[in-house]
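Try this one yourself first.
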């Protein structure tokens, strides 16, 4: 989520994400469908789908962007409703399984470069709203190579072990003793925002070290800083307003976004509502440092 001039991190891939059948352009949708489409559009912003699924110079959401991982590059999927190279023939259940369970259409495991371990915290209704939004897009014919990882990382069956170690399926459960704003912030940070994908240190297998939640990590030459309340390296000196302003504009009185985080601000956090940026800031300020 937060990266400064001294720290940045690649936007994490939303690979193999939303899938749908293209039915009509947005102008012919019913009022009820339009509401779902608009909800899905906003959830796709929270999830920063376009950041990973749009290649430099390519058409929006048509995939092909190479996503760096410690194990090799992965080409992002075409998530337009093209029936041959996109996701135009997937069912609702297949779509949900990919986004919330990490299971592809063929039944094979997906790689956590598509952060299903975070997206599982969205509800079925959330992910089907994203599907409805993607369903409203113009189909784009653009194929990609799904096999870019070297052996043995190309063996998808190994994800069974990874999932047993690091994946817990289930939608977000609000903390009843916390405010609605705090819960909204935690949901975004842990769910669609998948902040831990960059800001939580990883094991050798690429899983998140939950005991070092959001305490900063290094990824592909960029450093994603500690975004807890740690007084040495974290956000202890940042106010709620500082965080919200940073998410809106990419800078505040102490820091400015650079590199991949500048893209995240441009495509995602700057387009969030003021209420959601405030909720994220409120949640992050509640986290204790090391």
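Now uncover the answer:
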């Amino acid at each position: 989520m937060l990266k400064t001039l001294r720290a940045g991190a690649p936007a994490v891939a939303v690979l193999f994400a939303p899938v749908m059948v293209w039915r009509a352009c947005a102008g012919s949708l019913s009022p009820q469908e339009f509401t779902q489409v608009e909800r899905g559009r906003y959830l796709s912003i929270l999830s920063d789908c376009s950041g990973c699924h749009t290649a430099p110079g390519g058409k929006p959401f048509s995939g092909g962007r190479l996503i760096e991982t410690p194990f090799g590059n992965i080409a992002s999927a075409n998530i337009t409703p093209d029936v041959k190279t996109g996701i135009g023939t997937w069912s609702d259940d297949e779509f949900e399984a990919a986004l919330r369970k990490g299971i592809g259409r063929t039944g094979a495991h997906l790689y956590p470069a598509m952060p299903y371990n975070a997206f599982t915290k969205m509800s079925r209704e959330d992910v089907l709203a994203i599907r409805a939004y993607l369903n409203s897009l113009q189909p784009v014919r653009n194929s990609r190579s799904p096999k870019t990882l070297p052996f043995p990382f190309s063996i998808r069956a190994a994800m069974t072990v990874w999932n047993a170690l690091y994946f817990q399926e289930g939608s977000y459960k609000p903390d009843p003793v916390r405010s609605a704003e705090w819960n909204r912030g935690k949901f975004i940070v842990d769910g669609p925002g998948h902040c831990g994908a960059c800001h939580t240190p990883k094991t050798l297998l690429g899983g998140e070290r939950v005991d070092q939640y959001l305490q900063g990590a290094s990824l592909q030459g960029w450093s994603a800083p500690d975004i807890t309340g740690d007084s040495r390296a974290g956000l202890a000196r940042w106010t709620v307003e500082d965080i919200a302003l940073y998410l809106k504009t990419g800078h505040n009185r102490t820091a400015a976004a650079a590199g991949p985080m500048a893209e995240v601000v441009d495509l995602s956090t700057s387009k969030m509502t003021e209420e959601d940026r405030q909720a994220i800031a409120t949640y992050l300020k509640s986290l204790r440092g090391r």
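Discussion: The chain is about 35% helix and 5% strand. The mean pLDDT is 85.
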